[in-house]
Input
Amino acid sequence: MIHSGKKTVVLGLGQSGESAATLLHEEGADVTVCESADDSPLRDKAAALAARGIRVLLGAEADADASSYDLAVLSPGIDPSVPLVQNILKKNIPLIGELELAFQECTCPVVAITGTNGKTTTTELTTRILQGCGVRAMASGNIGLPFSTAVRQSHQLDMMVLEVSSFQLETIRTFRPKVAAYLNLSPNHLDRYSDVREYRAAKLRLFENQTAEDFLVVNALSDLPSFPSQRITFSAATPAADFTLRGSEILFRGTRILDQAHTRLPGIHNAENIMAALGIGYALNLDLASMAAAIADHSPPAHRCEFVRDLDGVRWINDSKATNLDAMGKAILSQNRPVILIAGGKDKGFEFDGNAALVRERSRAAILIGEMRHRIASSWSTSPCHTVESLEQAVHLARRLAEPGDLVLFSPGTSSFDMFRNYVDRGNIFKALVQNLENNPPTKP
Output
């Protein structure tokens, strides 16, 4: 109970902020939560916390809070440049993130996984492998369950597996994973970072506290600086790695481990997710054959190239988890049918030009939604593009455009927050819309 008796403030009343406030309160801290927004659901949440002895400030009162604190805990979704955070920083109050707070309370070793794409799949797959090999493990972090909630069970675990975002890594101090995996990097969150270099620097903080006793698992083609931790490499593109791909076979230093064709994880991107998970298990001295068996039994997470249904000879795929161009590109490349693509969403500060050639070559049409729809249509001017006002309109237009043998791929390529609560909400709405389509073939436009 290292924060017992301290006067603390949590910035943000989202899921992570509420979890951090609850943890601090249970540890005996005096807790205030400050949240810039102020609406009816937040006031209800504030009242519930107040009933447990946690003070909550909302709106302008939170941004201008004059109190002093021993410690501030920042929720990862909040940009440090906003008035809520600047008010704390100008008072020189020590600031950490929810990830760091939970790590300080964690009693078991930690595996941490970051990267632009594949984090959730690799985190779930790693947890499945560990459990299949008899290791008491659970997944938390950016995957959905806050680390500061899961940490209460750490005394019953052999390993905590964390999906970690760049936002969470911005505010670490002592965070030190036993095994850290860096999957890949492509432009993302440029509405938060000034450029890709700054985004990359945040990701690389994952390794900064590791020692020679720890491990890093990294794509062999990643250009990383030297770190003291022991390096295990993987790649589907070069044989110069510990884990490699030959056809559909995944090899470890030249020896076959498993056939990807016998898993439910198709595509080159998933081959690398599998190799990263195997690398983590290898670092923890797990048996390769036992890990391969666990992978063969694993089903991929929802919203990542998730099959929804076949309708009149057309396959529908939900890839709402694709919140950047690289994820979208990998989803398109993993399909073996002509594609009707539904894409678009929040403007995150990057352009869609990089996927223009791929969309032209691999899709019959693109249906665009969200605040970026017109910009994307301009970027993809060499492809048939249709802009619509809603996801419902997009689904019905895709139904009319698709021919038997086609595949409708919902792979937005950017965030959901202009129209939906999050990518899960977006994906669930897409699936419901598709399931509600009638079986009769529509009239073609």
